């Protein structure tokens, strides 16, 4: 698939078929994605791929902790709640998703279930936990590298018929993720990618987020025209 077509067609998938993803397919995805840009070729990343009973245990414990009122415990520093235009964009996509799913504003059980889907990693059959070497902290450069790898993963997955959603809710209890996935202490857990074959009957999968016009965030300097 042409790269531009691939980027334009890819979307976040929040509903998955309960169909196993072969390990060979995931290996091929990572093989492609690891060509992502890396500062001075440092390749600070690690990928921990979970499926089956370990992923189910992670889902269960993550949900139990969050439903029980446990505090968020992530390895990475959080910006806190979004404000201003960032909050507006967050609310806008939530409205589109709730509208597609027929979730009314006053339907608290369904709204809560939607939140819990994130903690369950959207019931995807595979989760890729992305980490980087702790010795590089604090370091925006290694964060940038990991973001490049992450985007490479989701594009390579889409090219092979797999959907994905980059899912910060899945690692909100990083201590549980570390224990279940047996992630060494010298790695920082940054995010995870829920992955599987898209369920086209799941209404939210058809939702596309809005993007600002280029004039709102792009400047051209030194061009004759």
TrEMBL record:
Domain Nitroreductase: 8-197
PANTHER family: NAD(P)H NITROREDUCTASE YDGI-RELATED, NADH DEHYDROGENASE_NAD(P)H NITROREDUCTASE XCC3605-RELATED
Keyword Oxidoreductase: yes
Family designation: Belongs to the nitroreductase family.
Top-level lineage group: Bacteria
Pfam families linked: Nitroreductase
Upper taxonomic lineage: Bacteria, Pseudomonadati, Pseudomonadota, Alphaproteobacteria, Hyphomicrobiales
Protein name listed in UniProt: Nitroreductase
Native species: Bradyrhizobium barranii
Gene3D superfamilies: NADH Oxidase
Record keyword NAD present: no
Keywords of this entry: Oxidoreductase
InterPro entries reported in the protein's UniProt record: Nitroreductase, Nitroreductase-like
